[in-house]
Amino acid sequence: MAVPTLAPLLAPADFAATLPPHAVSASVLLTDAAGRILMLHQARGYPGHPAWWQLPGGLGDPGEDPVATARRETAEETGIRLTAVLRPLVVDYRSAADGWPPVIDFAFDAGAAPAGGKVRLSAEHDAWAWRTYEEWLPDLQPEQTAWFASLWRARRTAATAVLTDGRDVTGGRDVTDGAG
User: Fold this and answer.
1) CA dist list (Å): 57 to 6, 14, 15, 60, 174
2) pLDDT tens digits for 102-142?
């Protein structure tokens, strides 16, 4: 019996060049003392969707870990400096679409905003508001609804969810029945 020959191992840089590119993003679910959620309205849409309401967050800088991205983006977009431990709520693998590479999005629970913390918007956003989960639902884009429900469910149950394209597939099942 012939022994199969193994291909020579690639150098790390050569192997890395064969891997697909992915972008990383991170956002935070920040509530106030009354349990209302902070969301920001984009001043302009960007490729792939119109301007919409979103949690503080954004794309990671090269070499930046997701927690650092969440903290930096929140400070840049709201002026709020997060010091509490950020607990992961959902990890969402978003397939490549509209010219974007795949995005791995981390959403963290930032707990309650610091007392007296004022929101200072960046140029990326033109409005901010604190509303309850239910009050936000009419303002969400259709593609945000399942993601937002999974996020809120993860917050309430203290269980991290795994999503694909905004849909909860934790444990191999599609869980898209709302806030449950």
Assistant:
1) 45, 33, 31, 9, 25
2) 999 999 999 988 766 689 999 999 999 999 999 999 999 98
Q: Both tokens of residue 75?
A: 């400070």
Compute the distance between CA of residue 78 and CA of residue 90 in angstroms, rounded to an integer: 22
Q: What whole-number distance in Å separates Cα of residue 115 and Cα of residue 173?
A: 39
Strand segments (E) across the chain: 23-31, 37-42, 53-54, 57-59, 87-94, 103-112, 125-131, 161-164, 167-168
Which residue's entry shows tokens 């020579």? 8
In DSSP notation, 132-146 reads -HHHHGGGS-HHHHH
How, if at all, do strands 161-164 and 125-131 pair?
A: unpaired
Neighbour count for residue 54 (Cβ, 10 Å): 20
> Which tokens go with 83?
């010091």
Strand partners, 71: none
* Distance (Å, whole) CA 92 – CA 164: 5
Asked if 126 contacts 42 with a C-beta cutoff of 8 angstroms, the reply is yes
Q: What is the pTM of this model?
A: 0.85
